[in-house]
Amino acid sequence: MKRAEEWIYGSLAERVFNIRTMLDETYIELDNRWKDEVNMTIPQKELNKIRNSVNRQAPLGEESWQLETAIKYGLLSTLNERGRPKKDRH
What we know:
By secondary structure, this protein is mostly helical. It folds into 2 domains: 4-39, no CATH class; 44-79, no CATH class. It is built from 4 helices and no strands. The longest helix has 13 residues, at 44-56.
């Protein structure tokens, strides 16, 4: 599968192919660009941040918010790289 709407069990396929059975009214209408947004490739640097957040339970967001949240909840260590700090070589 190359595109998200090709996965028949996902809600995007239901929307794209008009086979969606709604239980209730939608909260927001998605425009035609939604399909492209879902299929957009996430840059590797951003993907690494997301993976770190999930794997280490680190706050994910703007840098100032991350720091503030990490301090508040005792999560500062989750923002650092794993392992021992690298020696500073001058």
